[in-house]
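lol so apparently i was supposed to do this last week
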Amino acid sequence: MTSILVSNDDGINAPGLFHLKQALDDVGEVTVIAPDREWTHSGHAKTMHKPLRVNELRLPDGSLAYASNGSPADCIALAVLGFLPQLPDLVVAGINLGANVGHDITYSGTLAAAIEGTISGMPSLAASLDTYEDGDFRYAARFVAYLAQQALAHGLPPNVLLNVNVPSLPGEEIAGIEITRLGRRLYLDELIRRQDPRGQNYYWIGGERPSGYAEDEGTDIWALARNHISITPIHLDMTEHEFIEELRSWEITTQWAVHNSEARE
Ligand code: MN
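anyway here it is w/ manganese (II) ion bound
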């Protein structure tokens, strides 16, 4: 029996997690291990200085699930390192409330869970719904379950995961599916400076929801703007291979030796 590990960064009670779990029940035996609270925008946090707890609970369909006080990546690590009796065949993280496109993938706890799965050698998917409002996850869950079947059938290369973003639209309004590359986010963050009752400054990083360069053809942001599902293969090798030669031309070894000896004189 195919075993599937499901987690998220919106927390164990998030509707997107439950819809994903229910859709994946048709694909394999699903185990849910998710954070006991929200970890949105927590990146690839791992817990190192306090114990991890895991509590059993029941999802709305009566099935057993596990809630951890750890991060999304901790949840995957727990499962892989022995909390589960066997390694899962597939890791699926989501379905996140809010798209994870472009540079978001470095912030996202949803992506971190899938990346943790990839690092541990399991094919992994990250899935998000492109809305911050009360989303209807049903269509997205069905699509992600289909994609999970495809990933299981075809396999994924080492160090590669799939990042899926689904428009928040009724199925009949979804215009198609695009295989994409990462786009460029446009963050609208601003620093809000206030004073607390004791006269000390404090700060919020606030501002509008992020936008993006929807005109960059072939990107995830472009696909969503055209009401298409976006599937981006993500490689964990972030090396810019094309820059290696130019960086070598800086001759850092030679130049550092000169610089260092001058500094000591
Ligand atoms: Mn989230």
